[in-house]
Amino acid sequence: MEVEVFGQLSHIYEAMIDWPKRLAAEEPFYRYWFEQARVKRVVDVACGTGHHAAMFHDWGLEVEGADLSPAMIEQARASFGEPPGLHWATRGFNEPIPGAGSWDVVVCVGNSLALAPDLATVQMAIARMLEALRPGGVLLVQVLNLWRLPDGPCIWQKCLRKQLPQGEVLILKGVHRRGEHGYVELVVANPHGGPLLAHESPRFLGLESSDLEALARQAGAARVAFFGGHAEQPFNRDTSVDLVMVVSEEAIHG
């Protein structure tokens, strides 16, 4: 599965993201919806290296972070430990979430759902996440909006020089669309010359809001809302960077 590429390069993935900046920007969004659901227990599906799960745990919540990649879970455990109330698990989209019907919030962010191999797996993942929620719980999903990208050229987003455990590296990261699929271009090179250290192009699905809503409703969701980002701006298929889905009893608020 394409998602495993990121597990093989977990240190690179970690180095690409300015986590303090990202979490600070997203925190008000999560705090609002967590307050609406009176959250005590959270499961972070496809948690990657665990930063969102660790943030939620710092708020005093009971949290499980799960990911298909053992390398990602190993990185999360190494970074944040496993203190009381914070648990890490290796689990894929097709597997049931333990404690079905008892979680207050399920989150699946960072474009993780779009890395599923096909729409059937997305359907299964949404069903598993919704069945994990207690009545009145909230599902929060964020993926990249592929449709704002032109079909063809790569949009290069990052060029970083980082010191990692394996030495100094140059990281280039971009994204592009080919028809109905997107590709993350990840190039890792030695800044002092020599052959490329890694070059990966994991594919992701171009998920539509209409598809996600239909799958959520098939799984029993009554209220579904979509936003163009964590500031809850209206979703625009042509211009929004993100597609954020909220499934809750209060899907839209003023």
The total domain count is 2
- The helical percent reads 25-40%
CATH level-3 fold name of the largest domain: Rossmann fold
- CATH H-tier superfamily of the largest domain: Vaccinia Virus protein VP39
CATH level-two architecture of the largest domain = 3-Layer(aba) Sandwich
Which secondary-structure class do the elements indicate? alpha/beta
Q: How many DSSP helices?
A: 7
Q: How are the strands of the biggest sheet laid out side by side?
A: 3-2-1-4-5-12-11
Largest sheet: 7 strands, mixed
Number of strands: 12
CATH class of the largest domain: Alpha Beta
* First-last Cα distance: 40 Å
What letter string, H or E per element, gives the SSE order?
A: HHHEHEHEEHEEEEEEHEE
Computed CA radius of gyration, to the nearest angstrom: 18 Å
How does the overall form come out from the CA principal axes? globular
Any low-confidence stretches, pLDDT <50, length ≥5?
Answer: 1-7
Strand content: 25-35%
> For the residues shown, what is the average pLDDT?
91
Describe this structure in words.
Strands 3-2-1-4-5-12-11 form a seven-stranded mixed sheet, sandwiched between helices. The model is unreliable at 1-7 (pLDDT under 50). It has seven helices and twelve strands. Strand 6 and strand 7 (167-178) form a beta hairpin. The protein folds into two domains: 4-145 and 207-247, 3-Layer(aba) Sandwich (Rossmann fold), CATH 3.40.50.150; 148-204, no CATH class. The protein is an alpha/beta fold and 254 residues long. The termini are far apart. Helix 6 crosses helix 7 (209-218). The protein has helices at 4-8, 10-16, 19-36, 51-58, 70-80, 119-132, 209-218; strands at residues 41-45, 62-67, 86-90, 103-108, 133-144, 155-164, 167-178, 181-189, 196-200, 203-205, 224-227, 242-247.
